[in-house]
Amino acid sequence: MHPDFAVSWDEPEDEDTQNPLNWPPKEKWANILVISFISFLVPLVSSMLAPAVTVVSEEFHTSSTLFPTFVVSIFILGFASGPLVLAPLSEIYGRVPVYHTANLLFIVFIVGCAVSQSASMLLVFRFLSGFVGVATIAIGPGSIADVMPRERRGRAVSIWAVGTILGPMIGPIVGGYVTEKAGWRWMFWIIAIVTGVTATAALFVLRETYPPVLLERKAAETRKATGDERYYSKLSSKVSFTQMFKHSIMRPTKMLIFFPVVTVLCTYVAILYGTLYLLFTTYSFVFEEIYGYSTFAAGLVFLAGGVGTLAGLLYVGVFSDRALKKRASTGKAVTPEDRLPLVITLPGALTFPVGLFIYGWTAQKHIHWIVPQIGTAVTGFGSILIFTSIQTYLVDAFEQYAASAIGANAVLRGLAGALIPLGGLNMYRALGWGWGNTLLAFVTLAIAPVPLILGIYGASIRKVKLFSVTL
Fold this sequence. Notes:
Mean pLDDT: 87
Family: Belongs to the major facilitator superfamily.
Keywords: Membrane, Transmembrane, Transmembrane helix
Number of domains: 1
GO cellular component, one term: membrane
Transmembrane segments: 29-53, 65-86, 98-117, 123-145, 157-178, 184-206, 256-280, 292-319, 340-361, 367-390, 402-423, 435-457
CATH superfamily: MFS general substrate transporter like domains
Order of helices and strands: EHHHHHHHHHHEHHHHHHHHH
Distance between the termini: 22 Å
Low-confidence stretches: none
Strand content: under 5%
Protein name: MFS general substrate transporter
């Protein structure tokens, strides 16, 4: 390949409108907002069945103590599996084909949930809908990295990330209301309709953003126009398609196993995420048993966590990009570690366990319902600070393979979100709400130094990789 035939962005590169980084702000934000809305909608589906699990169990005549939590968490198991396939595919074929295909399959599998005739059928379609629905969760930050420069990326990732946390909190409210008014199956029909409308809009709004795919298209057009087959994309891979496919499919797994910075951060996020889903799957038991809430009212308890999450979003939006812009204005090089400043990681790492303490002991002592709700709000605040800062850190640290890095994060997070809640009820039955949540709080407090340490020493740790593997 002769360098004279390498196809790149037109010079000057920062003015080439084909480069997604140079798109008009309206076009960038249209893409980001559509992806963010789907990233809110899909996690909403993950938890919306929580208030209706007793109704579903009765309809399918199952007395299993595992089914009420597993029918919720198996969706997250799909979340854990999907990124291993979807994220690498987006780095081969582009983001948009994966989004559109996943949206269509998601609608099909959601309809499958709505018409399920047995517990096993519902479980299968819940898993499949989670598997394909995770597309915007696994690839979304990659799309954001494609269109936003580093110093403007924090706010965009925050808006995207809030949907992934707010969705599971709004889901039970929707699920509880629809179950009481129309039956549990209608919650799936409604989601299928809303997703159908959103997917149709996505067909007209979403544009391809992945630079290697865009430059390959540009090279193909140049070859066609000139009749010269020597033109090639500057970002094209020098390996065969088969080798590239194998490399891409294995990339998220390689990152998880051989890159300690990815392993540590993803494990930390996974523990917090699994803890959140343990809370989500047991809220209805707490507030129905202790406070005598109805199915719909039990769904409303998720609002407090949503308020805390929104407060955290505003906090991150103010401090994340501001720190980078300030550093850049002084002429200092911006690094991924600037995404983990103490002003974000310290409050996030500490408020998460503090909220668990408040929630657990005030519920145990039957204190007024507003107090445990404050605890869930505090935990929600801490969660969005940690999740957003780590997501943006991974994107900045692995820009070219951002989708795979976030995919690796989604895999471990999904596994924890699916498996940790399975022991939740038994733990609370054995320890009580107070000591049960205290145990969770101590675990999350013990690992709280992780983002703080990486914020200081991350540059050195990032350079470490085991066995000299290549991505």
